[in-house]
Write a structure and sequence with these properties.
Length: 92
């Protein structure tokens, strides 16, 4: 089975902890065996899918050369995709 990759930005620790606190007020702990920890929360920028190793290394090298400026992002509410009872991805 091929690995699938995506480009993402890590969420600052304080914000990720706040999201986890809100998530823990939901019933996701009853419908999912494993829930991500705060350190794993991220903003997905682009889904790459399967990428050959040589190309993946080129992408990583290029991304490491980028210089990012901070930005503000506002979200509203929580949504999901996947099965209604056991959504695969929950996002804000």
């Amino acid at each position: 089975m091929n690995k699938h990759y995506f480009i993402a930005i890590k969420i600052p620790k304080e914000l990720a902890s706040a999201i986890i606190q809100e998530r823990d007020k939901t019933n996701l702990h009853r419908t999912h065996k494993i829930l991500p920890v705060a350190e794993d929360l991220h903003i997905t920028l682009y889904y790459l899918g399967h990428v050959a190793d040589g190309i993946l290394q080129q992408i990583i090298h290029s991304l490491n050369r980028l210089e990012w400026e901070s930005f503000e992002l506002k979200t509203s509410g929580v949504a999901h995709f996947g099965n209604e009872a056991t959504p695969r991805v929950v996002y804000t």
